[in-house]
Amino acid sequence: MIFEGWRRWIFFICCGGAIIVVDYRLFGVMKENCRQEKSIFKQVAGYKNMHLYQKSEVLVLLTDVFCRRFLPPYGDRTVDQMTQAARSGKQNIVEGSEAAMTSTETEVKLVNVGRASFQELREDYEDYLKKHGLPLWDKSHPRFDNMLAFCRTRNEYADYRHLAETLGAEEFCNMAVTLCHITDKMCSTYLKYLEQEFITKGGIKERMHAARTGYREEQDRRLRELEEENRRLRAENEELRRRLERQV
């Protein structure tokens, strides 16, 4: 039987003279608990959306073009050294981002390795300038500010493709050196952010503890609610039993 007129719908099952009261809201308990569970995994953005990764990808592609245009195709170990340094920088950022879900420590180590790789790549470009008697631009150079502004605001290789095929060795190297400096600064800033995040939020052990503690606290809260609901339903059950007896 179904009675209406109280504060909500309540189902009564009559069996052998006994009345069982069932509140329909109790059927949503498990679903609600599932929605409120905390994840032990760190929420991370996709690495392809990071400007740091985009800049590192530009450096990989630029270095490939530089080696093809300005270095001999055979017999020069610098080609392998530069391409490997550029690729290592990018790949360590990717691996660090992927590892971030479970280990901030691993992410920090890999990003730092990537940073070191870009520093090595910068040294190779600067060595090329020295070897060929070309100047390393500084703030006093008339083209330095424009080049710095361009490299800061351009994160896609499409913006560099034409320059990569047309710039001379001096301009190309100084553009690449500037990108290496910018990428190094971005790595340093990101490492400081990871350090602060670890200090304030902890790592996976802290997230696991928080998730487990949160789950237990939620279960305790729901148990108290159900106990209170059970006492209230028992009282309603008795009240309805008395009403039925008076009607008989």
Write the topology of this structure.
Blueprint: E1 2-3, E2 10-15, E3 18-23, H1 29-36, H2 51-70, H3 77-99, H4 104-131, H5 144-153, H6 161-166, H7 169-201, H8 204-247
Antiparallel strand pairs: 1-2, 2-3
Helix pairs in contact: 2-3, 2-7, 3-4, 4-7, 5-7
Q: What does this 3D model show about the protein?
A:
With 248 residues, the chain is mostly helical. The protein has 2 domains: 2-40 and 208-247, no CATH class; 47-202, no CATH class. The chain has 8 helices and 3 strands, in the order βββαααααααα. The chain has helices spanning 29-36, 51-70, 77-99, 104-131, 144-153, 161-166, 169-201, 204-247; strands spanning 2-3, 10-15, 18-23. A hairpin with a 2-residue loop joins β2 and β3. It is rod-shaped. Residues 1-36 have low confidence and may be disordered.
Low-confidence blocks of residues: 1-36
Largest sheet, if any? Answer: 3 strands, antiparallel
Beta-strand content estimate: 5-15%
Percentage of helical residues?
55-70%
- Count of individual helical segments: 8
Number of domains: 2
Arithmetic mean of pLDDT: 81
Number of strands: 3
Our measurement of the CA-to-CA distance between the termini, rounded to an integer number of angstroms, reads 17 Å
What is the molecular shape?
A: rod-shaped
Q: Would you tell me the structural class of the helices and strands?
A: mainly alpha
Question: What's the arrangement of strands in the largest beta sheet?
Answer: 1-2-3
The Cα radius of gyration reads: 33 Å
Spell out the helices and strands N to C: EEEHHHHHHHH
